[in-house]
Amino acid sequence: MADVQRADAQRNRARILEVALPAFTEDPQVSLNAIAKRAGVGPGTLYRHFPTREALLLAVYQEEIETLGASVERLLDQNPPLDAFRVWVRRLAELVRVKHGLGEALESPAAKAIIDATYEPVTGAIQRLLDAAATTGDIRADIDAGDVLLLLSALWRVPPGPAGLTQADRILDLIVDSLAVSPRRHSTGS
User: Fold this and answer.
1) Is the distance from CB of 36 to CB of 20 less than 8 angstroms?
2) Both 36 and 64 in a single domain?
3) What is the pTM of this model?
4) Which of 56, 71, 89, 106 has CB atoms 3.0–4.6 Å from 50's, for a disulfide?
5) Residue 65 shares a structural domain with residue 138
6) For the segment 73-98, what is each residue's pLDDT rounded down to a tens digit?
7) Is the Cβ–Cβ distance between 168 and 151 less than 8 Å?
């Protein structure tokens, strides 16, 4: 019986996480009760798994970053490297926007630990995408994934809505263009 209860609890947790990201994306202020209803569980079940809004947001972020990291090879199998990079980056920007909805909760030690733990998987995935694009000759081979992540941070600072998405696409074009094989080199003046 305990195995059935554990399996049921795991399914409930997975279902809550599955509906939470779209719910937070549609309405950053969505109530936890509304998420529980969407997941088909009672509020008590949601609160047993995620005692606070921040705990749920962080769990969604962590799980989605893991899923995103695992998607790199599939994207490269289905798309040319630069297209795979664009698709992957757009998804990353959406997830980080959810993370930014945490506000002050990002200051807690638990939140910082989760965010710090996602840095290497994210830069590793970026590096894999960059390496694939360099292999095809689409970009330079000397690009650092950490530098690219810093550039990408502009994408999750655009305003919400269609105008913000249009601006994010323009910024992404600028970033991709800056990775080109023959960029203009600027001297630092000596």
Assistant:
1) no
2) no
3) 0.78
4) 56
5) yes
6) 999 999 999 999 999 999 888 877 76
7) no
